[in-house]
Amino acid sequence: MSHTFLIHKADQPKQKIKREASGVNSKQILVVEDELDIAHLIKIHLMDVCDQVTLVHDGAQAVQLLKQKKWDAIILDLKLPNVDGLEICRRVRAENQWVPILMLTAKSTELDRVLGLEMGADDYLPKPFSVIELVARVKALLRRAQVTQAKEIPVENIVCEDLEINPEQRAVKLCGQQVKLTAKEFDLLHFFASHPDKVYNRSQLLDEVWGYGHDGYEHTVNSHMNRLRSKIEADTHQPKYIETVWGVGYKFIGQPA
Ligand code: CA
Question: Does residue 251 have a pLDDT over 90?
Fold first, then answer.
């Protein structure tokens, strides 16, 4: 089994010069990929934008490394020996680690893409991919993480009617009871609650909540929104928090407590 990689001359790393200009160095990235040639190729090109790239070729080993230290980004193959990429992603998010995750997969089916994003991956790249594209996506994720960190200090709880959102713990309570949300459901809710009464369409939400590279996946927003609402709304036909604005998108209508 072999993968064709779209490697162009321009894909060759340009040491040092680009690294200083990128502004995203002193970063540590974990690459979990069992195909050794692909893993090494990724490493060579990423060394251009970050300080340390650690390769692992096995899912169980990745789980161990993720427990041991904090990473600035993870590149995660979907099919891996022992523990697969989706499961790793799920575990990382279940432990409230908000490191950016870029998922790789040999299958470019919609289902895989949607699953990866729903498990909390931040971005998704089907094989075969261009290494330039991969590096661009990683840079975007690192930049985005920096902006998010800068934006989220200080983080204040948002209380609306019976809903309480704690961004620091990424926890949500409804009438005092904990509501279990996935990473993206939380991000969506927090984003809406931070911008009350403002209408967002699906493509704006993809930009704001999912970030770079999700054009054309507006239905992902719908499925997340439906699940989020089923968890926080007592009656989804008469929502108290997130209202559908027909033909446009959604808006947060919860009133401050
Ligand atoms: Ca694989």
Answer: yes
* Residue 165, pLDDT above cutoff 90: yes
Task: Give residues with Cβ within 8 angstroms of 123, minimum separation 6.
Answer: 100, 101, 102, 103, 137, 140, 141, 210, 211, 212, 213, 214
- Final residue in a domain of this structure, among 107, 123, 150: 150
What is the Å distance from ligand 1's center to 68 Cα?
23
User: How far, in Å, is the centroid of ligand 1 from the Cα of 200?
Assistant: 37
- Cα of 123 vs centre of ligand 1, distance in Å, is 17
Domain that holds residue 175: 158-252
CATH number, residue 30:
3.40.50.2300
| Ligand 1 center–CA 125 separation, angstroms | 13
Q: Residues 125, 172: one domain? A: no
From the CA of 22, how far away is ligand 1's center (Å)?
A: 29
**pLDDT tens sequence across 74-97:** 999 999 999 999 899 888 877 766
State the Cα–Cα distance between residues 158 and 103, nearest whole angstrom: 31
CA of 36 to the centre of ligand 1 (A): 9
114 located within any domain: yes
Tell me 248's DSSP state.
Answer: T
Residues 164 and 141 in one domain: no
Residues 128 and 89 placed together within one structural domain of the fold: yes
For residue 181, give the 3-state DSSP assignment.
coil
CA of 242 to the centre of ligand 1 (A): 39
> pLDDT per residue over 214-237, tens digit each?
666 777 788 889 999 999 999 989
Are 47 and 145 members of one domain? yes
Expressed in angstroms and rounded, the spacing between residue 24 Cα and the centre of ligand 1 is 27
Distance 163 CA to ligand 1 centre (A): 41
Q: Which residue, chain included where needed, has tokens 């251009």?
A: 48
